[in-house]
Amino acid sequence: MERWTGTGVALVTPFDEHLEIDRASLKGLVEYVIAGGVDFLVVLGTTAETATLNAGERAEVAGIVAEVNGGRVPMLAGVGGNNTREVACELAASPWLKDFQGVLSITPCYNKPNQEGLFEHFRELAAVSPLPLCLYNVPGRSGVNLCPGTVARLADECPNIVAVKEASGRFDQATDLVRGRREGFSLLSGDDALTLPLLSVGFDGVISVLANVVPEACVRLVRSAREGRWEEAREMHLGLADLCRELFEEGNPAGVKAALHARGIIRRHALRLPLTPVSGALYERIRESVSR
């Protein structure tokens, strides 16, 4: 079973001038981040604008990434939603999942279940999933917080729940996750700005938006910290701080798409509504940052 550690990259979905999938840009992006040394790929997450992709498009994106990757690095696929039965059916019946080594599944959005509802939701998914699950806690988007006690309970009762992507922004909660985890369970930062502090208390890596743009720097930061080279990691963290702030200033993935376009990695920084591109002023600041 794959252990999710190090630097994962939450891939964007590039669009062309007609807001269709830009296959060439997606292929180029996959090659770029693998060449940059990332440890694993995350496909169809928040940063991929998955909420605006239909089932056929999700399968197409997954297939393109799997083909380009060619088994070089492990891959997590985002499969989640607020209808437990529907998500379970997708997990059980999606043929494209055969190319992946794990599933990233977000807490249900809008319904706002309590902790027991979250436990039962993920336990049902774990019962049908053909792949190990990584829980995804991002209360700023989902409206509900997956508490450390519930994560520990799921990890104890469901052997194929193997990791959590923690993006609550709460350092006390991250500390409790470290204290309560089972052996071999991976803890992954879901917030680039907090990756170094979370590594310092025992997290195993990050699922990074920033690594789309500067994969080598993100990999170096994480590896430096995990190998105890804290001064080097601190310098990397400080050096990336401005760009990291700019990427999220007007929302994700608007900022990261602007940066990828400014670096010539994707051909356009188009987004599907209701998301819109960053302002011209922010684009110029991002362009200056990535050109340094």
Describe this structure in words.
49% of the residues are buried. Strands 1-2-3-4-5-6-7-8 form an 8-stranded parallel beta barrel, surrounded by 6 helices. The protein is α/β, with parallel strands linked by helices. Helix 3 links the parallel strand 3 and strand 4. The chain is 46% helix and 13% strand. The N and C termini lie far apart (40 Å). It contains 12 helices and 8 strands. Helix 6 packs parallel to helix 7, helix 9 packs across helix 10 and helix 10 runs antiparallel to helix 12. The radius of gyration is 18 Å and the shape is globular.
Brief write-up:
The protein is an alpha/beta fold and 292 residues long. Helices cover 46% and strands 13% of the residues.
Beta-strand portion reads 5-15%
Task: Sketch the topology as an H/E string, one letter per element.
Answer: EHEHEHEHEHHEHEHEHHHH
Please state the average pLDDT score: 97
Number of strands: 8
Major sheet description: 8 strands, parallel, barrel
Structural class: alpha/beta
**Gyration radius, in Å:** 18 Å
Q: Strand arrangement, largest sheet?
A: 1-2-3-4-5-6-7-8
- Multimeric state: single chain
Which ranges are low-confidence, i.e. pLDDT below 50, for 5 or more consecutive residues? none
Helix content: 40-55%
Count of DSSP-assigned helices: 12
Principal-axes geometry comes out as: globular
Distance between termini?
Answer: 40 Å
